[in-house]
Design goal:
There is one protein chain. By secondary structure, the chain is an all-alpha fold. The chain has a domain of 36 residues. The chain has 3 helices and no strands. α2 packs antiparallel against α3. The longest helix is centred in the N-terminal third of the chain and has 19 residues. It is elongated, with a radius of gyration of 21 Å. It starts with 5 loop residues before the first helix and ends with a helix.
Length: 71
């Protein structure tokens, strides 16, 4: 009869859990709205991201439109 080592079982479960979490990170269709951040701060953050080259002008315009529609 074969004995299972608890550490091997735990490692397998941990790797499976990590794989499941990482596959969930690939979804980019979800938009999260943080209601704790004032719209002015969100707009300033978007402007800084645009100025830093993190987002394009089109992305900036799209996000600003969403921000304005939400408020």
């Amino acid at each position: 009869m074969k004995h299972f080592r608890p550490s091997a079982v735990l490692m397998t479960l941990a790797l499976l859990a990590a794989a499941l979490l990482l596959t969930a990170c690939g979804s980019s269709d979800v938009t999260v709205h943080n209601r704790m951040v004032p719209p002015e701060q969100s707009a300033a953050d978007l402007k800084r991201a645009l100025d830093a080259g993190i987002i394009s002008q089109d992305e900036y315009n799209e996000e600003m439109e969403k921000l304005n529609d939400a408020h």
